[in-house]
């Protein structure tokens, strides 16, 4: 399963894009999105999902 970003809550700060170890997050049309084919949920790299850990708005990066 991959993570997703709730667009209506996202502040477009960009913190998640730079923390994603699999390069699954990018800005598309003023919204950050997670490519589910690239998202590994940080398994093997971190104990917690980095997008959710660095996001300033709680529950914006969530399991899809």
Automatic annotation (TrEMBL):
<dbReference type="InterPro" id="IPR017896">
    <property type="entry name" value="4Fe4S_Fe-S-bd"/>
</dbReference>
<dbReference type="GO" id="GO:0046872">
    <property type="term" value="F:metal ion binding"/>
</dbReference>
<keyword id="KW-0614">Plasmid</keyword>
<keyword id="KW-0408">Iron</keyword>
<keyword id="KW-0411">Iron-sulfur</keyword>
<keyword id="KW-0479">Metal-binding</keyword>
<keyword id="KW-0535">Nitrogen fixation</keyword>
<dbReference type="Pfam" id="PF12838">
    <property type="entry name" value="Fer4_7"/>
</dbReference>
<keyword id="KW-0249">Electron transport</keyword>
<keyword id="KW-0004">4Fe-4S</keyword>
<keyword id="KW-0813">Transport</keyword>
<feature type="domain" description="4Fe-4S ferredoxin-type">
    <location>
        <begin position="1"/>
        <end position="30"/>
    </location>
</feature>
<protein>
    <recommendedName>
        <fullName>Ferredoxin-like protein in nif region</fullName>
    </recommendedName>
</protein>
<dbReference type="InterPro" id="IPR017900">
    <property type="entry name" value="4Fe4S_Fe_S_CS"/>
</dbReference>
<dbReference type="GO" id="GO:0051539">
    <property type="term" value="F:4 iron, 4 sulfur cluster binding"/>
</dbReference>
